[in-house]
Amino acid sequence: MPASEYSKDTDRTTDVQTQDETPFSDIIKDHPLILKGLSDCEFINASPIQVAALPTIIAGNDTIVEAKNGTGKTLTFVIPTLIKLKLEQNHLQTIILAPTREIAVQIQQCFKKVGQHLPGLKCEYFIGGTPVDVDKQKAKCCQIAVGSPGRIKHLINDHVLKCSEVKSFILDEVDRLFTDKSFTKDVRLIDAKLPKLKQTIVVSASIDKNDMSVFDEFMKEYIMVKGAEEDMNALQDPSKFLLGIKQYVACVKAVSTNIILLPAKNVRLLNILQNLPYTQCIVFTNYMTRVEAVCNMLRDHNYKADYIRGDQDQSIRLKLVDRLTSFKSKILVATDLIARGIDSSNVDLVINMDCPNDWATYLHRIGRAGRFGNKGWIIFFL
């Protein structure tokens, strides 16, 4: 969550602005060190979902937070967690689960930035693809653990992460955690190891009504906080996308096979990149085998492009995400590995070379652009 995403001096869409600007200092005035961290990151005014959710979560209620991508959901649980953290106690107090390793790392970085003035803060990420021995060292005195369900479960079962004093359990991108059976199983196993008396917070942009019954397993009573009525997610009303994005269809000539279709799509992609002004672009495809080919094609035409997919080494994937968010990469060709949660305020063009498999994935893909009130273009190949 780069500071520029919240602080660029530019007109923003109304889905990230309150009618009367509400500074964070009005909500958490008794926490000057956290306010200083927010200010250093140039997070000054709260978004509508932050105004709605922060008092409820700070009060200790189990909470479901549902709001559009790019409207500031991460801070709805980062700020309360830091407020409640007992810095003098060097044991695990909060566990946060995320469906991808990249999102987990990004959340941990947000905690470190906002909490940079809190003495003794120790927040670590624990993800697959990294050495367990390193995790064992990081777990010592860890107060906030952010990670993927599989690795967190592993470390709890091995008594590396001791969770008897955990006070809050947070599930980010909860719809993804509960639609993947292996994730759901791990979440249940982790929850069973945690104290019964704890606060549970679940967060997403696309919570399906059919999943609501699952939440009853983890929360006996909860408050549901949503963005303003006009900000409901696109699963309920397809017109309720981020207000700053415009969506277009790019027609590709019909052909008999995918082998012939890819070159046709490549030609269409080059035409768009040559004629549409953009700052940073993500190109999504459904196939791991295709991302490298498309990236190489773009490089052959002198575009500064990278590609990311699930079979790459974890350290490489983290470097690629960093290149995107630090604006070192102009174009990133990707699978749905980064369709969720990745924040790069400069992305203003998203191209779907292949049709996503479901509405939720489409919603999250296009949410990589137009974040926090910025403008963006979405192009869908058909």
TrEMBL record:
GO terms for biological process: regulation of gene expression. GO terms for molecular function: ATP binding; hydrolase activity; nucleic acid binding; RNA helicase activity. This is RNA helicase. Keywords: ATP-binding, Helicase, Hydrolase, Nucleotide-binding. The lineage of its organism: Eukaryota, Metazoa, Ecdysozoa, Arthropoda, Hexapoda. Residues 271-382 form the Helicase C-terminal domain. CDD domains: DEADc_DDX20, SF2_C_DEAD. SUPFAM superfamilies: P-loop containing nucleoside triphosphate hydrolases. InterPro entries: DEAD/DEAH_box_helicase_dom, Helicase_ATP-bd, Helicase_C-like, P-loop_NTPase. Residues 54-225 form the Helicase ATP-binding domain. The gene is DDX20. Its EC number is 3.6.4.13. SMART domains: DEXDc, HELICc. Gene3D superfamilies: P-loop containing nucleotide triphosphate hydrolases. Residues 1-21 are annotated as: Disordered. It holds the Pfam family Helicase_C. Residues 1-14 have a biased composition (Basic and acidic residues). Signal peptide: none annotated. It comes from Schizaphis graminum.
